[in-house]
Amino acid sequence: MSFTTSWLGDKEARRVVEILQERLSALNDLHLTLKHIHWNVVGPNFIGVHEMIDPQVTLVRGYADTIAERIATLGGSPRGTAHAIETDRSWDDYSLGRDTAQAHLAALDVVYDGFISTQRAGITETEEIDPVTQDILIGQSAELEKFQWFVRAHLENAAGELTHAGQHTETGAADQAR
Ligand SMILES: [Fe+2]
């Protein structure tokens, strides 16, 4: 890795690139998962969920582009292939196929929990070593957390309880929400 930025030390730049590469693969996986849900959702709430997802796909693809270009700016080589997604991710492939809106949204809530918790860990870690990267991660997290609210709003009752409360796996959340 030869660095094109002089603002970070070698060690710090390498660590930031590592964090960003994991985020790039997570974002690439996320926009594929969102499209998969867009294609597989069924039932009375089909159209609302089908149409809610496409703008998020566009947003997430744009975020992947921003992250990849930050990697390049720091002197790294962004890996955007399917193989990179496979090797970088610590989570399983999205587990639902054709299913109801409630099942997919509950599973998607679990997906966003995982994504955002790692994003926030990245925000904490980049605080000192690269506040510019941190600023990118914070801005993205604000929009992703807002979308998670959109998802959860479909799964909430008037008391603010979620249909899939206490479930932390996609299949567990889907089973309880269905
Ligand atoms: Fe479509």
UniProtKB/TrEMBL annotation:
GO terms for molecular function: ferric iron binding; oxidoreductase activity, acting on metal ions. InterPro entries: DPS_DNA-bd, DPS_DNA-bd_CS, Ferritin-like, Ferritin-like_SF, Ferritin_DPS_dom. Transmembrane segments: none annotated. Pfam families: Ferritin (PF00210). Residues 18-157 form the Ferritin/DPS domain. Belongs to the Dps family. NCBIfam families: PRK09448.1. This is DNA starvation/stationary phase protection protein Dps. It comes from Gordonia mangrovi. The gene is dps.
